[in-house]
Known about the structure:
Elements: E1 9-14, H1 18-29, E2 34-39, H2 42-51, E3 57-61, H3 69-78, E4 86-91, H4 96-105, E5 109-112, H5 117-128, H6 132-149, H7 157-171, H8 178-189, H9 193-210, H10 213-222, H11 232-247
Parallel strand pairs: 1-2, 1-3, 3-4, 4-5
Helix pairs in contact: 2-3, 6-7, 6-11, 7-9, 7-11, 8-9
Amino acid sequence: MTNAAGTTLTALFADGDGKVCSAVGLYAQLQQDIQVTVAGTGRQVLERLRESPPPDVLIVDMLLPDISVFELLAGVGRLCLKDPPAVLVTMRAPSEAMARRLLTAGADFFMLKPYRLEELLDTAIYLAADNDTLRQRRVRSHINWHLRAYRSPPELVGGNYIRWMAEELVLRDPNTTAEELYCQLAARYYTTPNTISKAVGRAVRAMWKQATPAYLELCRQLGESTDKPLSNRKFVMSLAERVRWELGL
């Protein structure tokens, strides 16, 4: 099976039990739908994510020998990966509160132990496939990655509005106008479209003042002068268009 990029699905499996790692690694060698590498600790996982392209799915045991699964998920978040993996956590009889904490921390699914290896990899393949949840996560990650490259000031609420607008354009209707998006945001935050527009404009102007290489390259690709900020519409539409192209949507 292949991912959205047309390559074989990949997974990184982490468990402190060496026998479990060996069993998963050997079983995975017999599979054609997914390629699996193994790690024995949470720090090894983070090191591999820093040094290599991220896998499509991360399978991690709840009880790692060095760091907690919550520390691991926080570390994955701090890496700011452009294409973050789906996360499957294996565990024994979780409470409802623990399951909720895992999902809030960044896990996408969890599987009870003991499990059958076939069931484990089938679940990993399902999570890594091009489904709506993973697509939304990756769209959001790509948008955030570009805004960081443009140095969108985190203290300006307009940056959050830009994120939402770009996500709507990528995932739902690319033909929605900026004015329609302002109205939707205004209804959502109990304000006016004009207030939303001004906030977005302040964020766009702030990025223009930063004049990062990424922003200057964007202007060059659009054939726009760098002597003044891009219009709100042009900035948001071009951001959404670029993310859609990067993800093949």
